[in-house]
């Protein structure tokens, strides 16, 4: 038996996405090609790897056993390629992003980047966009992923839908005026939420505000307020709301990648490319501006 690493990469992508169509976007193939490659791998193994129905995708026992081997094989393959392709790539990158972007966008990027470029050091700063932009301007950061607002440049890498969230018990929804948890003054996320509430003529009170999304989520989960956050960062512990709940649509946020002084290096270029790919292949990615 010869296990093709191309088929294994498709297999791992399907696991990570739990969808053949989303896996296809991640590895830049068509859904039909992903299905064909999974079928070929199942033929090699001699057992089905996935349980499929119209909505869900899950691993069989054989799929679970193969996953660990597949990830080890691909990790060693990528390390070998990196060792011969760019053995001298080294340096340091200082990157900043808000906590919700860090938790969703960066883990797969940094995991793969660390394997390919083990001699590159990554310094991470977690802060709101309003705090990161001055650090880019002063040269304290090389790269930053920020929410774009008026006057902010950078490269648009994603448009992200905003969703209203509430506790599962929907306690805050029953209160009038509606208690809303908001991000800090000056943030674009706060601005689009307030604009939406104004357009919708919603009677509300700004019950809480914070620079931390984790703090907003804690308040929402406790039933003390509703909030609007990016869809990609909405946890399963809350429910998403919409027009049927009397809440207006909120304009999407634009995520921009901003470079600082001296960030025009091969090391930064490699990380920028990885960030572009990660942003483009997340589920429900918005189309970048023309």
Automatic annotation (TrEMBL):
Residues 1-60 form the HTH lysR-type domain. Keywords: DNA-binding, Transcription, Transcription regulation. The keyword DNA-binding applies. InterPro entries: LTTR, LysR_HTH_N, LysR_subst-bd, WH-like_DNA-bd_sf, WH_DNA-bd_sf. Gene3D superfamilies: Periplasmic binding protein-like II, Winged helix-like DNA-binding domain superfamily/Winged helix DNA-binding domain. PROSITE patterns: HTH_LYSR (PS50931). The keyword 4Fe-4S does not apply. Belongs to the LysR transcriptional regulatory family. This is LysR family transcriptional regulator. The lineage of its organism: Bacteria, Pseudomonadati, Pseudomonadota, Alphaproteobacteria, Rhodobacterales.
